[in-house]
Design goal:
Chains A, B: This is Ribokinase. Chains A, B: One of its GO terms (molecular function) is kinase activity. Chains A, B: Keywords: Kinase, Transferase. 2 copies of one chain form a homodimer. The first copy, chain A, has 316 residues and is of the alpha/beta class. Chain A has one domain: UDP-N-acetylmuramoyl-L-alanine:D-glutamate ligase. Helices cover 36% and strands 23% of the residues of chain A. The first copy, chain A, is built from 11 helices and 14 strands. In chain A, the strands form 2 sheets. In chain A, strands 1, 4, 5, 6, 9, 10, 11, 12, 13 and 14 form a 10-stranded mixed beta sheet that branches. Chain A has a 4-stranded mixed beta sheet with strand order 3-2-7-8. In chain A, a hairpin with a 6-residue loop joins strand 7 and strand 8. Chain A is globular and about 55 Å long. The mean pLDDT of chain A is 94. Chains A and B meet through helix 7, strand 14, helix 10 and helix 11 of A and helix 7, strand 14, helix 10 and helix 11 of B.
Chain lengths: 316, 316
């Protein structure tokens, strides 16, 4: 199995949704992606930062899931990044009460030597200058994917475009890609970005599903119908983590280590299947607070739900 | 082929979209549905009303498409229902400049004798009291479908619920079903309505596709990816017209005339295929102003696009 690196935030989230509330539970883009990816993969390299308040039980939890913590910097005198927010009836909109960046302001993403040959990379939503800095340490990577958010489009568009120029695949939501490109039509918006190394754009549409777009092809997958959303936090991160884990698992057999994927591109059917796997993963993520539901399930649960999903989306 | 009745408005639309403008072109819920359905079906019974200003060339156009006009009342001293509106960049939102109901206020939906044995019925968006009045004239109908809009939910909710109690299938959009039921979750919202005769709800989500929901099952279809929307007017009506035409065409062989479909329900695979056909039909509708694009295409065009759509939505 090739090495897979996830970089992103590890956070304490304090959440309130119509289904209840939870103070200081595990959250963050890197955390959700890593927990999601560890359903399929035995080993994940995590690059992130936490403070001295980060509980040992959480370190043990991650280690047990095969998350390598040599890249998790613990700044003892600092506090872990913390987000406090709530959702009302329309759970597509997160309302922020408070964001305390804390140790995140000191995050210097230097890869430990053991991570330097990571072939697959997912960079969760962090400062795009840091994303570029991570890619720069991985000149031989096979396949990099990057997620972002509207905050960086507003405040650091140039840096974000630089980071995007270094990635093979971009995760972005529908509002963000419209904002970034000025194009209202999502397919035209994706094609504005598809130049240079960037070969694939995945547009996340929340409850409306996701679309994978390359210069030549499109794949569209609706989201899994659910009667109840408990907590949408981390849906996009777990989607990306699930997607990437499928790519890593299958690329290891489909592609010999010495073939740069970015040169020839990725097999379309693998990407499409990964899109569906990411969708299944995210559907479990939102059925519990934080990553509590993801932490309970196995590959068998994903596969079982996939059978139902196939029947729902089958086109005869 | 069993008889198929479409009731709804026939209108003069004056439109402006980012792609151009058209004064006084053919529009209306009944018109869009009838033009859409006539791609598959050789004969459609139309029940509607127009004024003395309705041009003979449009009557000839409809007749040529197999639309029976014995149910199209012409009130010579009146003016045809007219809608004047525009769309901005976000074409999900129609902005109304002026609505002139004109002869629509005198619409008394009495079926001509030749329509009274219509087995399949689609009632486009009109006053729900009139919808109920039409259903009452068709006690032996096999399968009725009904569309509505937020205006009637606001102003005539009780009458609308009465009309819904008489239909087998309800077309409604996501915002409307939330408004009508007070349920934010679309699957729960559909189940609130699924009692009595109503067995199927189709939730239209515009660019995000459509969902067919019964008490036991769900089918989800995304919309066809398009680089450009010329005019979204009538998308929902043409979707319903395309859907119903597929049902009528296939029900004629699958169900003998003397089996009431409402008793045993419709074959799920036929409904699901109709959902896809409606999606293809609507995708052509929005590629031209009014119904100009629909009027150009044939079943072969729908089938060709369907092949592309299958590839885009295939889940391996």
């Amino acid at each position: 199995m090739p090495k897979f690196l996830i970089a992103g935030t590890v956070a304490y989230d304090s959440l309130k949704t119509p289904q209840g509330e939870r103070p200081r539970i595990l959250g963050g883009s890197g955390l959700h992606a890593a927990v999601a990816a560890s359903i399929l993969l035995k080993k994940i390299n995590l690059l992130s930062v936490v403070g001295g308040d980060f509980e040992p039980q959480y370190l043990a939890f991650l280690q047990k899931r095969g998350v390598d913590l040599r890249g998790l910097k613990i700044i003892k005198e600092g506090q872990t990044f913390a987000w406090n927010g709530f959702y009302e009836k329309d759970m597509n909109v997160a309302h922020t009460v408070q964001t305390a960046l804390n140790v995140l302001t000191q995050f210097d993403p230097v890869l430990p030597p053991e991570y330097l040959d990571s072939a697959f990379v997912f960079l969760g939503n962090i400062d795009p200058a840091l994303q570029t800095k991570i890619f720069a340490q991985l000149p031989a990577r096979k396949f990099g994917a990057l997620d972002t958010m509207n905050y960086w489009i507003d405040s650091q568009k140039e840096n974000l475009l630089k980071a995007i120029a270094e990635t093979d695949l971009l995760f972005i939501n529908d509002a963000e890609i419209r904002q970034l490109t000025g194009e209202d039509n999502l397919f035209r918006a994706a094609r504005v970005l598809l130049t240079g190394r960037l070969r694939y754009v995945i547009i996340k549409k929340g409850e409306h599903g996701a679309m994978l777009i390359s210069a030549e092809r499109i794949a569209i997958v609706p989201s899994m119908p659910l009667d109840e959303i408990v907590d949408p936090t981390g849906a996009g991160d777990s989607f990306a983590g699930g997607f990437m884990s499928y790519i890593v698992e299958h690329a290891s057999t489909a592609y010999p280590q010495d073939t740069p994927l970015s040169a020839g591109g990725m097999d379309w059917d693998t990407l499409r299947a990964a899109l569906v796997y990411g969708t299944m993963t995210a559907s479990f993520n939102v059925q519990g607070f934080g990553c509590e539901k993801l932490a309970e399930i196995t590959k068998a649960d994903l596969d079982e739900r996939l059978k139902v999903f196939r029947e729902i989306t089958r086109i005869s």
